[in-house]
Design goal:
Layout (H helix, E strand, L loop, with lengths): L13 H19 L8 H16 L11 E3 L12 E8 L8 E8 L1
Antiparallel strand pairs: 1-2, 2-3
Helix pairs in contact: 1-2
Length: 107
């Protein structure tokens, strides 16, 4: 039998795009419970732990070795401000792309 290789289509992007939208929504929901807490290192560490726990449930969709959650001074967080930023980088299993989701909470 001859082997045919199909060219990539737009349908190949639906899975990773849907995953990115879902992760952004869920991380926003997780971050909302920290909205009126003091923005310090302890709060940010708790938020990172919650997001890591959420991402660990998605191991059938994302590669856990390429997962990174950043919520510290490197992505704009400053102690005792009215804003909270979290950056989540993941690599879907069905894609070669790596995408980043940034969630910002500003009061």
């Amino acid at each position: 039998f001859p082997v045919t290789i199909r060219s990539p289509t737009a349908l190949d992007r639906i899975g990773p795009t849907s995953l990115k939208i879902q992760i952004e929504k869920d991380v926003s929901d997780i971050a909302l419970k920290y909205l009126f807490t003091i923005n310090n290192a302890g709060t940010r560490n708790l938020l990172v732990q919650d997001v890591d726990a959420y991402l660990s449930k998605l191991t059938s969709f994302i590669d856990p070795t390429y997962t990174q959650v950043v919520c510290d001074e490197t992505n704009g967080n400053v102690d005792n401000t009215n804003s909270l930023y979290i950056t989540v980088t993941v690599k879907p299993i069905v894609s070669v792309d790596v995408f980043t989701v940034t969630v910002s909470l500003v009061v």
